[in-house]
Amino acid sequence: MSHSPIDSKTAGQRNEKLILSLLRKHGSLTQTQLCRLVGIGSSTASTIVARLRDKGLVQESRGSSQRRGPKPSILSLNPKCSYVIGIEINPSYAVIGMFDFVGRLVGKRRMLLGPDHSPVYVIDLVRGGLEGFLREHHLNEDSVLGAGVTLSGSVSSGGEVYLSSPLGWRDVPLRRLLSEYFNFPIVIYSNRVRLLAEIAAAPELATRNILYLNVANGVGSTVYSEGRLVFGATGRYGEIGHNVIDPDGPLCGCGHRGCLEAHISGPALAGKIERDVRNGAQTLLAEGLGQQTTPEQLLANWPKAVDKGDAYAIALRDYAAGLISRCAADAINGYDPDVLILAGYVNLLFADVFAEAIGLRMKTAVYDSEMRQIEIRPAKAGEDALINGICAAVLQDTLDVRW
Q1: At which of 77, 93, 124 does a domain end?
Q2: What is the dihedral angle through the alpha carbons of 113, 117, 118, 121, rounded to the nearest 10 degrees?
Q3: Are 223 and 139 in a shared domain?
Q4: What's phi and psi for 364, nearest 5 deg?
Q5: CATH number for the domain including 89?
Q6: Spatial separation of the C-alpha atoms in residues 143 and 254, rounded to whole Å
Q7: How far apart are CA 198 and CA 281, in angstroms?
Q8: pLDDT of residue 8
Q9: Is 399 helix (H, G, I), strand (E, B) or coil?
């Protein structure tokens, strides 16, 4: 591999990015600390900091010191210099979040999708929502550093959605279609970025080997190893929800029959409840049927029904626990994590029960299970995990240092 020469301009741009990245990581630093971390002299650092200050990217304040003489200058990112837009699209709704330059959420809008999941309808909804959102917050497009869009599915590096089984999309050039309406950069991510929000909420995870098992409108896994997310050769890594567990089972959005996702995703469980009630099952969960509710809203009453001794609800919980523990054991064998995070609204309804089921399954289905020390924990990043993860990914990509 050949390398092009690194001229002073390239090195200067690299050091600018590196300083911004370090300030994002540490919050604030003195110029002396920056010199040590970047490996540059004080005069070079002063020149670079002056450029960043002139661009409005950093701000300075005076620190305290017990020594005589001038107080140290403390540098930090200017949170109002630019903004990042994060957009989540799922079968129930779309969410738009606006973040400042340090990654703080400063505004959010949620829009119901309804039954029409066609790309034309969803893109028009997102476009109109984003245009209104920018007007509402008095932002022009020059103030937006970039926007990231996330959805469940396989996404190319160029922003084409190869397949999103929850939305029923195939070969949708999402980045190109959205870029026709906006002048700022737009990138498309799979929902793996939510793990970045989890790590931000619990920084100690950054040094761990993580298996993130998400069960919500879709079923998927994300792996974080050696300080980075794993994507695979084509971006389709971790599609555990499309493991076929019953070739004669229900049709999945990917076109195959009997995928795990077609059994235990939120929409699959909501559909099972509806069919079972129609066939005579007696359950408190029937109270939510026939209303305009999303699968997440319908299943929100599931733990209450279990607490009241609803036999059907208990059996459904145990059914889900059996399949979730089975797929977790398969993933543990494949990925060898030391942390397993249970995420998604289905998993979080019964995280303790599912964790116990996984522990039991490991004894009989995981290779050399006695030698593994795996911490099983529920996700903690909350309902904004996806848009927080998108913001982290956009900032990471923007400030990433490449020669």
Answers
A1: 77
A2: 0
A3: no
A4: -115, -10
A5: 3.30.420.40
A6: 39
A7: 38
A8: 58
A9: helix
Instruction: Indicate the pairing of strand 154-155 with strand 144-151.
Output: unpaired
Supply the range of the domain harboring residue 63.
8-77
Inter-axis angle of helices 194-201 and 385-399, to 10 degrees? Answer: 90
Residues 262 and 227 in one domain: yes
- Parts of the chain with a pLDDT under 50: 1-6, 402-403
Contact between 146 and 184 under an 8 Å Cβ cutoff? The reply is yes
Say if residue 287 is in the same domain as residue 212. Answer: yes
For the record, the structure tokens of 155 come out as: 């996404």
Do residue 248 and residue 311 come from a single domain?
Answer: yes
Separation of alpha carbons 375 and 334, rounded Å: 17
| Residues 312-368 pLDDT 10s | 999 999 999 999 999 999 999 999 999 999 999 999 999 999 999 999 999 999 999
Taking the C-alpha atoms of residue 31 and residue 230, their distance in angstroms, rounded to an integer, is: 34
pLDDT for position 310? 97
- Which residue is it, tokens 């070969």? 171
Coil, strand or helix: which one is 228? strand
Q: Do 180 and 238 fall within a single domain?
A: no
